[in-house]
Sequence to fold (84 residues):
Amino acid sequence: MQKIQTNKKAEKASEYESSGHTIKCVLYDRDCIGCLECETCDLDPNKVCDNCGKCLDIQDVASIKIDKIYASEADYEADINKRS
Fold:
């Protein structure tokens, strides 16, 4: 695993040096220094991020609970008046 991270680091440094323009850091307000902190997994700091998405709180399916269905606007208004 360390070898992969070292190769990535060398690749990033090479890209940084050969680019001719300054690459901005995505994490901090500075120029990229090739530290690869942006490539590190948030859940396992010893792992290079592989974009698995496990660190994101995204649900595949969302649901809502429906309390009541009104057949007409008059039914809705009658229910609102009952509650008041």
Q: What stands out?
A: The chain has one domain: 2-83. The CA atoms of residues 26 and 38 lie 7 Å apart.
